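#struct-queue
[09:14] JT: dropping the first one here, sequence first, then the structure tokens:
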Amino acid sequence: MHLFKTKIGRLRILAILEGISLLTLVFIAVPMKYGLGNPALVKMMGPVHGTLFLLFLFNTLSVGVEQQWKFRETTWKVLLACFIPFGTFYIDHKILSRL
């Protein structure tokens, strides 16, 4: 797969994985915890999501410096994406896929 060969490609993969981990937490793990009294998936997915979140942040900054992104035009939008549900999917479609 050619996405693994570039830093932007790896950032795109992280964006998708981070988004999927958030959706898993919000729509599956948290309802299981509070609706069914089963916190196992939250205990498993919480650290996974946290790690992917941090990797996305650090890789965004790394790619932004390497690609000489202007912070006010690109970097802040990509960073903001991981704080908004579905944001990483949107930012991948609107910015990262076009780089």
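[09:21] JT: and here's the second one, same format:
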Amino acid sequence: MARQATVERRTRETHVRVQLRVDGTGHAEVDTGIGFYDHMWTLFAAHGLFDLTIAAEGDLHVDEHHTVEDVAICVGQALHQALGDRRGIVRTAHVYVPMDEALARVVVDLGGRPYAVFEAQWHTPRVGGLSTDVIFHIFETLAVHGRMNLHAHVLYGRNDHHQVEALFKALGRALDAATRLDERRQDIPSTKGMLV
């Protein structure tokens, strides 16, 4: 059975549609109206080997916040739906990714308990059309709606573009590793017999 999901969210502020296939090839078609944000989700899909389609229209005349948040909500919900009861998955993973002078680490646990820890120091208020203060909110929103424990850290770096890029690459790779099916595990990946 294919691990995939489609989520659509329509509010007075945004209209977002996300299609996610967990066992993909890294193909992405992303259009949020925010070029740098498109670039980050494309990197996420490519490095996580997810097939990802994102189409978003939002009130960018206000700012990017609503669009950015609602895309993260939909990607998280799509991941949660695609994984089903999460039977047989590896569940936890951690990845370090360098990008030139920057180094990021992302650690995930898909055990169903949403929590986010995020540490990064920014040097500029924006990267392209994305404010750096919303980066934490992306990861937090993804953790809540994807029902995962997510720890993301930029260990060091000087260039904010490189730091954010390393984070999204690490996120994709960590989720790829954690969502993989382990043929030795036939049940829910918890000694409780259930998640959460």
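[09:30] RK: nice, looked through the second one.
[09:31] RK: The CA atoms of residues 70 and 150 lie 18 Å apart.
[09:31] JT: good to know. Residues 4-179 form a domain with the Ribosomal Protein S5; domain 2 fold (CATH 3.30.230.40).
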